[in-house]
Amino acid sequence: MERGDGRLSVRSAVTGAVALLLAVAGCSEHRAHAQSAPQAPARAGLAPVSAATVGVLAGRTAACRLPAPTRPDPVPATHVLSPAEEQWGVEVLGVTRTSGGYMLDFRYRVVDPAKAAPLLKKGVRTRLTDEATGAVTFVPSPPTVGPLRQTTDEPEAGRTYFEIFTNPGAEIAAGSLVTVELGDFKAEHVVTR
After folding, report:
1. Parallel, antiparallel, or unpaired for β 136-137 and 160-166?
2. Residue 178 CB neighbour total at 10 angstroms
3. Nearest to residue 180, comparing CAs of 141, 142, 124?
4. Which of 51, 117, 160, 165 is most deeply buried (CB count within 10 A of its CB)?
C-alpha cells in the first residue's frame, strides 16, 4: 500500500472522511479517544492518523452513542384541520422542490390512522396539478425501486409520509399553487416551496 499508484490518496481521503464523520456525529467519547490515542509515525506522503482511524481502516467499526430517533409529536389540539384533512385524517405539511427543482416532495402527517389508511395503500392513483398552468405530474415508478411514495397497511398517528412527484423541466416553480390528489383525497392551493 505504500506504492505511489494512487491508493495512498484514497486512503488519506478515507481517513479524512472517517475523522470528519466522527467529529460531525458529535461522538465526544470517540473524539476524545482519538485525540488521546497515540499517533502513528508519519511516513512519507501520509498524514499521521489516530488509533481510532486505523481501527476503522483495518475493518473494525467505531460505534457512536447517538440519541435514539424520536417520533414526531401528534398534531397539537389547537391546530385546525381543513375539511378534507379532517375527512381523510391527515395534515398537509407542504410541497417542496427537490433534486434541483426536477422533483416535488409532498409531505403529510397522519392524524387519524383509520381515516388515512386508504391514502397509503398500494395502487392509489396520485397526481399533482399546477393550478396556474394546468401542468399535471405523477409519482414516477422506476423499475428498480418502484413508486416513489410510501405505502403501509398500518399508518401511525403523528408519522410523516411522503410522495415524490416528477417536475419535468422544473416547470412548477417555488411559490406556485398546486393541487395534490391521492386517490379521492384532494389538497388544493398548496404553496410550493
Report:
1. unpaired
2. 22
3. 124
4. 165
